[in-house]
Protein backbone atom coordinates (compact mmCIF):
# COMPACT_ATOMS: atom_id res chain seq x y z
CA UNK A 1 0.00 0.00 0.00
CA UNK A 2 1.41 3.39 -0.99
CA UNK A 3 0.90 6.12 1.58
CA UNK A 4 0.27 9.65 0.39
CA UNK A 5 3.25 10.87 2.44
CA UNK A 6 5.67 8.11 1.38
CA UNK A 7 7.74 10.31 -0.98
CA UNK A 8 8.54 13.88 -0.05
CA UNK A 9 11.50 14.69 -2.30
CA UNK A 10 13.55 12.85 -4.85
CA UNK A 11 16.79 13.46 -6.72
CA UNK A 12 18.67 11.59 -9.43
CA UNK A 13 22.39 10.82 -9.54
CA UNK A 14 24.36 12.59 -12.29
CA UNK A 15 24.74 9.30 -14.17
CA UNK A 16 21.02 8.57 -13.88
CA UNK A 17 21.55 5.14 -12.35
CA UNK A 18 20.30 5.97 -8.83
CA UNK A 19 17.21 7.64 -7.44
CA UNK A 20 17.32 9.09 -3.92
CA UNK A 21 14.06 9.57 -2.03
CA UNK A 22 13.42 11.11 1.36
CA UNK A 23 10.40 10.12 3.34
CA UNK A 24 9.72 12.74 5.98
CA UNK A 25 7.38 10.76 8.21
CA UNK A 26 9.41 7.57 7.95
CA UNK A 27 12.64 9.48 8.78
CA UNK A 28 14.78 7.88 6.08
CA UNK A 29 16.62 8.17 2.80
CA UNK A 30 15.93 5.45 0.24
CA UNK A 31 18.20 4.65 -2.68
CA UNK A 32 16.73 2.90 -5.71
CA UNK A 33 18.26 1.67 -8.95
CA UNK A 34 16.97 3.05 -12.25
CA UNK A 35 14.63 0.07 -12.57
CA UNK A 36 13.16 0.65 -9.08
CA UNK A 37 15.15 -2.04 -7.29
CA UNK A 38 15.73 -1.11 -3.64
CA UNK A 39 19.47 -0.63 -3.06
CA UNK A 40 19.73 0.94 0.38
CA UNK A 41 17.92 2.57 3.28
CA UNK A 42 19.68 5.11 5.47
CA UNK A 43 18.32 6.15 8.85
CA UNK A 44 19.93 8.36 11.46
CA UNK A 45 18.57 10.18 14.54
CA UNK A 46 19.91 13.39 12.97
CA UNK A 47 17.69 12.74 9.95
CA UNK A 48 14.48 13.34 11.87
CA UNK A 49 11.82 14.65 9.46
CA UNK A 50 14.18 15.04 6.48
CA UNK A 51 13.10 17.76 4.14
CA UNK A 52 15.85 19.00 1.82
CA UNK A 53 17.63 16.76 -0.69
CA UNK A 54 20.20 17.55 -3.36
CA UNK A 55 22.68 15.54 -5.42
CA UNK A 56 25.71 17.51 -6.57
CA UNK A 57 27.15 17.24 -10.09
CA UNK A 58 29.90 15.06 -8.56
CA UNK A 59 27.29 12.70 -7.08
CA UNK A 60 27.46 13.75 -3.42
CA UNK A 61 24.14 13.33 -1.64
CA UNK A 62 23.12 16.20 0.66
CA UNK A 63 20.11 15.88 2.95
CA UNK A 64 18.82 17.96 5.81
CA UNK A 65 17.01 16.71 8.85
CA UNK A 66 14.17 19.14 9.39
CA UNK A 67 15.17 20.00 12.92
CA UNK A 68 18.86 20.99 13.07
CA UNK A 69 21.22 19.13 10.75
CA UNK A 70 22.61 18.99 7.22
CA UNK A 71 24.35 15.72 6.28
CA UNK A 72 26.39 14.32 3.43
CA UNK A 73 25.50 10.69 2.73
CA UNK A 74 27.58 8.34 0.60
CA UNK A 75 26.53 7.88 -3.03
CA UNK A 76 25.50 4.30 -2.20
CA UNK A 77 22.96 5.70 0.30
CA UNK A 78 24.13 3.56 3.21
CA UNK A 79 26.37 5.73 5.37
CA UNK A 80 26.89 9.25 6.65
CA UNK A 81 30.10 10.79 5.34
CA UNK A 82 29.88 14.08 7.20
CA UNK A 83 27.73 16.37 9.29
CA UNK A 84 27.96 19.57 7.27
CA UNK A 85 26.01 21.92 9.53
CA UNK A 86 24.28 21.85 12.92
CA UNK A 87 22.31 24.16 15.17
CA UNK A 88 25.01 24.33 17.81
CA UNK A 89 27.92 24.96 15.44
CA UNK A 90 26.30 26.85 12.55
CA UNK A 91 22.88 28.12 13.64
CA UNK A 92 20.87 25.77 11.42
CA UNK A 93 17.25 25.67 12.59
CA UNK A 94 14.54 23.88 10.61
CA UNK A 95 16.53 23.51 7.36
CA UNK A 96 14.02 23.23 4.54
CA UNK A 97 16.20 23.04 1.45
CA UNK A 98 19.82 22.37 0.55
CA UNK A 99 21.75 23.06 -2.66
CA UNK A 100 25.39 22.90 -3.69
CA UNK A 101 26.56 25.62 -6.07
CA UNK A 102 29.59 24.51 -8.07
CA UNK A 103 29.94 28.09 -9.32
CA UNK A 104 30.62 29.46 -5.83
CA UNK A 105 31.73 26.20 -4.12
CA UNK A 106 29.06 26.81 -1.50
CA UNK A 107 26.33 24.85 0.22
CA UNK A 108 23.18 26.95 0.45
CA UNK A 109 20.59 26.12 3.12
CA UNK A 110 17.09 27.60 3.25
CA UNK A 111 15.31 27.53 6.61
CA UNK A 112 11.60 27.12 7.29
CA UNK A 113 10.90 29.80 9.90
CA UNK A 114 13.74 32.20 9.17
CA UNK A 115 14.27 34.87 6.52
CA UNK A 116 17.98 34.07 6.46
CA UNK A 117 19.61 31.82 3.90
CA UNK A 118 22.77 30.20 5.20
CA UNK A 119 25.76 29.91 2.87
CA UNK A 120 28.68 27.66 3.74
CA UNK A 121 31.86 27.91 1.70
CA UNK A 122 33.24 24.49 0.81
CA UNK A 123 36.98 23.99 0.80
CA UNK A 124 38.24 22.02 -2.14
CA UNK A 125 40.25 18.88 -1.38
CA UNK A 126 42.79 17.62 -3.83
CA UNK A 127 43.81 13.97 -3.60
CA UNK A 128 47.06 13.00 -5.25
CA UNK A 129 47.47 9.34 -6.11
CA UNK A 130 51.01 8.10 -6.34
CA UNK A 131 51.74 4.66 -7.70
CA UNK A 132 55.07 3.10 -6.94
CA UNK A 133 56.72 0.36 -8.88
CA UNK A 134 59.53 -1.72 -7.41
UniProtKB/TrEMBL annotation:
InterPro entries: 6-blade_b-propeller_TolB-like. SUPFAM superfamilies: NHL repeat. It comes from the Eukaryota. This is Uncharacterized protein. It comes from Dreissena polymorpha (Zebra mussel). The lineage of its organism: Eukaryota, Metazoa, Spiralia, Lophotrochozoa, Mollusca.
